[in-house]
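Annex B, item 7. Sequence and C-alpha cells for protein A, then protein B.
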Amino acid sequence: MKKQNLKASNTSSLFVSIIFSILIVSVLQIFADLLRSNQYLLILAGFLSSLIFVFALVIAGVLCKSMGWKVNWFFIIFCFIVGNTIAVTIDGIAMTTCSLFSFVELYLLYNLSKKVY
C-alpha cells in the first residue's frame, strides 16, 4: 500500500489558522460574560485562548517560511503574549490557564516537529 502525503499547503494552513483565530476571538468576546460566570468556563476560555497561541504560531511559521526565516524564540514569545492578551480580556484565571495550556501545546508541537522534520 502506498503511503499518502497528507501535508497541507502553506496557504491553506495560513488561511485556516486566520479563520479559526478570528472565530475563537469572536466567540470569546461574544460570550465573555457567560465565560466569567463559572470557574469551569474560565478554564475553557483559557484553553480556547491557548488555541489562539497555536494558530498564531502557525501563522508566524508560515510567514517566516515564506521569507526564508526560521521561527525562533522571539516569535514564540510574541504568539504567547497574543494568546494571553486575548485571555486576560476575559479574566485573570483564563490567562493563567491559557499560559499552562500554551506551555503544554508548545511542548507537544516541539516533539511533533522533531518527529516530522
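Protein B:
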Amino acid sequence: MASTAAYYYTGCEDDYQPHFLDSCSLCRRSLNQNSDIFMYRGNTPFCSQECRQEQIEMDEAMEKKWKLSSSSSKRSSAVRQSSDSAKESGMNKAVRTGTVAVI
C-alpha cells in the first residue's frame, strides 16, 4: 500500500514537503490511504474521534481563558475610567469646612 505522501510527491526530493493529510495533527500518527480521517475546522486532520475531541476541548479551554482575560481587562479598564472621572469631578466641586450648630 502506498502512503498518502506518495500521491503528493513532486519529484524533487529536496523540495518535498509533507501534505497536510499525511499525519494526525495531534498525535502525528500516519494517516493511511484506506482509513477514515476526522477533520476539524476545515483543514485539520485527525486519526480518530478521540484525537479530534481532545483538540476541540483544548481549543474551547483556550477560548474560555481568552474570553475571561479579555473581560477582566475590560472590567479593570472600566474601574479605572470611573475612578478617574470621580477624581476629576471631585476637583471641580467647592467644599466648605467649618462648624455647624443645630439648635
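Comment on protein B: The helical segments are 4-7, 49-91.
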